Amino acid sequence: MAGKGKLFGVLALQGDFEKHQHSLEGAGARQCEVRNLDDLKRVDALVIPGGESTTMLRLMDYYDLFEPLKAFGAEKPIFGTCAGAILMARGVSSPAQKSLDLMDIDVERNAYGRQVDSRIIELESSIGNVEAVFIRAPIIRRTGPEVEVLASYLGDAVLVRQGKHMAATFHPELTDDTRVHKLFMDLVGE
Amino acid sequence: MILNEAFRKKIGLAEMLKGGVIMDVTNAEQALIAEKAGAVAVMALIKVPSDIRKEGGVARMSPITCIREIQATVSIPVMAKARIGHFAEAQVLEALKVDFIDESEVLTPADDENHIDKHPFNVPFVCGCRNLGEALRRIGEGAAMIRTKGEAGTGNVVEAVRHMRTIIREMRQLTVMSHDELMVAAKHHQAPYELIEYCHKFGKLPVPNFSAGGIATPADAALMMQLGAETVFVGSGIYKSPDPVNFAKAIVKATLNYKDPAKVLEACEELPDGMPGLDIRQIKSEELMAGRGW
Fold this sequence. Notes:
Helix content of chain B: 40-55%
Number of helices of chain B: 13
Largest sheet of chain B: 8 strands, parallel
Shape of chain A: globular
Shape of chain B: globular
Largest sheet of chain A: 7 strands, mixed
Order of helices and strands of chain B: HEHEHHEHEEHEHHHEHEHHH
Largest interface: A-B, 36 and 34 residues
Oligomer: heterodimer
Order of helices and strands of chain A: EHEHEHHEHEEEEEEEEH
Number of helices of chain A: 6
Strand content of chain A: 25-35%
Structural class of chain A: alpha/beta
């Protein structure tokens, strides 16, 4: 956390937030946990980790974080992975649930099936081939005209960018490769 | 090393469940209460552990209709228990596409010498342990998540504390050993050498370490998280309490904010006392569940 440069927060309500902290650290970013409003006010950009999106929504409600996160996203960059991508979408199905509506994408939850259908693949992307870990992953069923698709798998977008936001339906934080995190850091800028 | 692709995929789901509460449920209605309260996953079982303890007899895998109903009701992961060593029950649960199998001492063991060989399965397993050796033997067999056992169905957290403190202490001791002492440490712990080496190097297990068995209040959950648990399992503590809905919510809140006493206090506010508890010393030794596992 020492030094200068942008401070990246990782939403630590639940999920694999430690893995994201590790990846950001490895990519040379300053990072910290975000558990409440005070934490959120300190950071320049935010990562919403993988986990259970239903549970995260519930926890946001308990501590009145939903609206502040939406407001944060209107001004500052957010990168969501898996559950994070679900929370950033405009529309969510299977089942429908509310979301922060920060990116013009619609996602279907658990769209590949249950845990036995989880997979690890070699993914071609705009930053070269990356190892992509899909865990009970959602599928992005629609991308709006302003959404840039950086990688697709079986015909569906899995890594997308829109303005200052990014979303991945897989888990770059579960590998030692920090290129996807670096991409987000570039987006945030110095 | 055992951290191959298939194993990493299994550990991946365990990572997603960190920082949360996994709740025992016996039907769809309870599963919905759990999901609404903010549980990260539910464990489907036929009876909560305190009833298994009370009623005795042989406790087996849950009836399929019960698990299917729960799967159809909630969108969070659904786990289910198989008997220790009963790989055919596990095969059935895998065919049913449960998200995690708990090879659990809460059910009556089906094999009194061997556990299930968990690597060939596609579905991840969680297993209980009382100490580091037991944890590493289970990971060696393919468990992608470890939970300290505690003593299920007692509402008494003392065994959960003992097991968590033991495993954390034993890992800490490994980190200060010199490399040439590790083989004897492996002999002492009766654990695979490469996993002893991993703990020596990283000071932690290669899989997430959760806590179970006797957690009955929000403060119990905060205690286990501060002792090093990465998530808590709550069984009888919710549905044997006088107010399951509010206990479920309060335990979720306390687990999230375990580092912040003011928030834990807020979670405990207005809750009645928890489920009736049992003194471990008054349970007959053959009725203790934690001793099951080899």
